């Protein structure tokens, strides 16, 4: 490693060495070895699958919309961002700026799911009821209903977050065992 000394006598690393080492590590990684991305997608898929099979169990019919729809138990948004933040923590360290950024963004997504999106869904319920009660000759009587299942209750967000953390932890343990 190239080292230089600044005017105060402190040893500093040469910038060209830093750039060459970071570019070589970037070229050796691919999307297939990007474990935070893989575990985030896996947590999302698990959460959506749970909703899909739970819907079938409750209603005894397959609802393909559950595989991509928002709302319900567990929160796939929370599972995704929690898995991403946890996997970044394992890969980059829990004390780094990258983990801090992922954690803050995960908190914002989870807060939004229980706040703004949940309230928008509740407003959609009220508006749909108002439109339903309109007389048939009213111009809005034939309008398509608004989607009501937008946000999540706090237990749905907590369950999604736990699912995401567990997915990342199990994935991390598997990758450690494979090495």
Folded structure, characterized:
The structure is a single chain. The chain is mostly helical. It has helices spanning 15-28, 35-59, 76-92, 97-114, 116-132, 154-178, and strands at 3-5, 11-13. A hairpin with a 5-residue loop joins β1 and β2 (11-13). The two termini are 27 Å apart. The model is unreliable at 14-27 (pLDDT under 50).
Question: Could you provide a short overview of the structure?
Answer:
The protein has 179 residues and is mainly alpha-helical. It has helices at residues 15-28, 35-59, 76-92, 97-114, 116-132, 154-178; strands at residues 3-5, 11-13.
Secondary-structure map with pairings?
Blueprint lengths: L2 E3 L5 E3 L1 H14 L6 H25 L16 H17 L4 H18 L1 H17 L21 H25 L1
Antiparallel strand pairs: 1-2
Please supply descriptive tags for the structure shown above.
179 residues; single chain; 65% helix; 6 helices; two-stranded antiparallel ribbon; mainly alpha; 2 strands
Largest sheet: 2 strands, antiparallel
Instruction: Please state the structural category.
Output: mainly alpha
Share of β-strand residues: under 5%
Task: Classify the helix fraction into a percent range.
Answer: 55-70%
Strand order of the largest sheet: 1-2
Shape designation: elongated
Alpha carbon gyration radius: 23 Å
User: Count of helical segments?
Assistant: 6
- Order of SSEs, N→C? EEHHHHHH
Question: Low-confidence parts, pLDDT < 50 over ≥5 residues?
Answer: 14-27
Distance between the termini: 27 Å
Count of strand segments: 2
Oligomer: single chain
The average pLDDT score comes to 78
């Amino acid at each position: 490693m190239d080292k230089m000394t600044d005017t105060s006598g402190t040893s500093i690393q040469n910038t060209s060495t830093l750039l060459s080492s970071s570019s070589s590590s970037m070229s050796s990684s691919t999307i297939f070895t990007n474990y935070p991305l893989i575990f985030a997608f896996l947590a999302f898929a698990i959460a959506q699958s749970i909703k899909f099979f739970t819907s079938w169990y409750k209603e005894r019919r397959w609802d393909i919309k559950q595989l991509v729809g928002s709302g319900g138990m567990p929160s796939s948004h929370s599972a995704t961002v929690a898995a991403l933040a946890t996997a970044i923590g394992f890969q980059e360290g829990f004390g780094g700026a990258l983990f801090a950024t992922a954690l803050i963004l995960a908190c914002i997504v989870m807060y939004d799911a229980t706040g703004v999106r949940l309230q928008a869904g509740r407003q959609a319920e009220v508006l749909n009821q108002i439109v339903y009660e309109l007389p048939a000759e009213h111009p809005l009587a034939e309008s398509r209903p608004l989607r009501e299942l937008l946000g999540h209750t706090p237990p749905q967000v907590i369950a999604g977050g736990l699912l995401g953390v567990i997915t990342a932890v199990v994935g991390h343990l598997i990758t450690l065992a494979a090495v």
